[in-house]
Amino acid sequence: MHHTTTKLLAGLLWVAATAALADRSDWPSDFIVGTASHDSTYDVYGSGWANLIADELGLSGSGAVTGGPLQNLALVNGGDLAFGLTTLGPAADAVAGQSPLAPGVPMDNACALFPMYATPFSITALSSSGITSIAGIPDGTRIGFGPSASTADAYFSAILEALGVSFERRNGSWNELSAQLQEGQLDVIAFAADLPIPVVSRLAGQTDVNIIAFTEEEQARVLETFPVSEYWIPASADTTLEEDVRAVAMWNFAIARCDLPEDFVYEVTRVTMENNDKLRDVHHVAETTIPENIVHNAVLPFHPGAARWYTEHGYEIDESLIR
Question: Which SUPFAM superfamilies match (predicted)?
């Protein structure tokens, strides 16, 4: 009986192994993940994720430094890259044919793969400015939005305009803008950055700062208009905070070419979702790279391989959001 069971098990394993090999017949032998600038969160996360997939699936894979979310969408959509990392703002523009890299051309070969993490939008001003609310930002206020064409520059500026704020736009690195704020050459910085923000922490150690909250009404208006999610900046994010601060955040998602083989993308999704501990070792933001967070994507269609893994494991995806 034991001998028969062993033979049966061996036969099943052989069949499974043979099927797995057959399923790989149309898989790519290697892949590249589009990330962003060197040493950025995208670069660290994307390269680490590529290594995880390559190791677990026995493939050759790596991350590639790119111009970031916008370019990754264009490179994946055009077939130059298998995978990329992006944010839902540029993704919404790309689907609508409004990407500045391909105006008038809807990008229809970039599919959602899995949620990465949320990038919160936060507002900082010196306490000496007297600015304590979004509605209280005076007309003509000099606001720094980070590097030109960054997520903050493209979307936080539009959010503040939608909330009736009239401002003078300033661009530069967060370090440059922080120095300008401290020297009185700037009034407010509108961040789209992972928390805690090092330059805010440094500022708070040298002078009094205000981290400005969205009101419930302001948050609701923004959620209706932009591809962002509700977010609370935890009091632990900065020593100046005594309680959590209401805000919004834009989710980052990994994307795949929609024409990649379904079984391949299924396995990529499986490895990612089943190895969150290894991803957290790559970067702490991966703590939110979990299947429950697929609900934050209502912009890009999910690759059918990814959607199959989620639905098999009890996570619902509207059929209209499956390629």
Answer: Periplasmic binding protein-like II (SSF53850)
